[in-house]
Design a protein that fits this description.
Ribosomal Protein S5, domain 2, single chain, 15 strands, about 30% strand, about 25% helix
Length: about 290
């Protein structure tokens, strides 16, 4: 049973307009009783606010077993199904779909799809492996750095936190010596995926440094690690899953935190190099025009 939408439902037992707190509560309770009594799944479609939160009374979230958000930019073909509440399982799972002529189709190998159009040896392009639930997902980080002619340089991000990028820029300037204060910086995660974990910090920092210096990185390398304010590269979790996914897709090199070198990365089928600081990572990653 699919209800589209719960805000339009009206119970005859409640004397109020559809969408009110009392009507939403009564309608949801009646539908929950049907689901449990008949043993059938019931899907309630709800509206969201401009901020992306569930519209209407918060009581709705407490009355259902699972809350799912169907996200995606209308200009992109990919859609992400993400759980924020699940009484009977993990909320760390993720479903990725592609809109085609025949409708929404599940993407079985999203990493390969997201990297299909990545240009090789392009300054400002790096690859990282993020964990979405139990699934490792390889995504491309794109950076563009250009001289600013504004009083306050632009910092534009898509798919990553703007505050996180601002911190990485400060570390690059202070600890690595890159003069970025008068540069416009644009960061994009290809494919419309959102990255929230700090393990992508190193890939973001190296994409920025690569474009600023006009020096590409190894197209067959991935970059993992959190960047600290002191310029250190901190360890990340589930490194073995990330490296195995990279090896499966043909990557042969990984730059990882020194803390993760050892048993965490062994057996992944990919060569890896540990780094302890961001300056060291920049020096070991960027390829000069002569290939050295």
């Amino acid at each position: 049973l699919i209800i589209d939408s719960i805000q339009t439902m009206q119970s005859p037992d409640v004397e109020s307009s559809p969408g009110t707190v009392s009507q939403v509560r009564a309608s949801t309770a009646a539908l929950a009783a049907i689901a449990k009594g008949q043993g059938i799944p019931v899907f309630l479609v709800g509206h969201v606010t401009k901020e992306g939160a569930l519209a209407g009374p918060r009581v709705l979230e407490h009355m259902v077993d699972t809350v799912l958000y169907f996200e995606g930019d209308r200009h992109l073909t990919f859609r992400v199904l993400r759980a924020v509440k699940n009484r009977f399982g993990s909320t760390d799972e993720l479903g990725i779909f592609e809109m085609r002529e025949e409708g929404l189709v599940g993407v079985e190998n999203p990493s390969e799809l997201f990297l299909a159009e990545r240009p090789e040896m392009q300054p400002g392009s790096t690859v990282t492996a993020t964990i979405e639930g139990t699934r490792p997902l390889l995504v491309e980080i794109q950076a563009l750095v250009a001289p600013s002619y504004l009083g306050s340089p632009r910092r534009t991000t898509n798919g990553v936190s703007r505050d996180r990028v601002a911190m990485i820029l400060a570390v690059l300037e202070k600890r690595v010596g890159l003069s970025l204060a008068n540069q416009d910086v644009y960061i994009n995660v290809a494919g419309g995926i959102k990255i929230e974990e700090p393990a992508a910090d190193l890939a973001i920092a190296l994409a920025i440094a690569s474009n600023f210096k006009e020096m590409p990185v190894d197209p067959k390398a991935i970059f993992l690690g959190e960047v600290g304010l002191s310029g250190e590269v901190r360890g990340c979790s589930q490194i073995d899953k990330r490296l195995k996914e990279a090896a499966r897709l043909g990557f042969d090199m990984a730059l990882i935190p020194g803390k993760n070198v050892g048993r965490d990365a062994k057996g992944s089928g990919i060569a890896f190099l540990g780094v302890d600081g961001l300056r060291e990572a920049v020096d070991k990653s960027l390829i000069s025009p002569s290939g050295v």
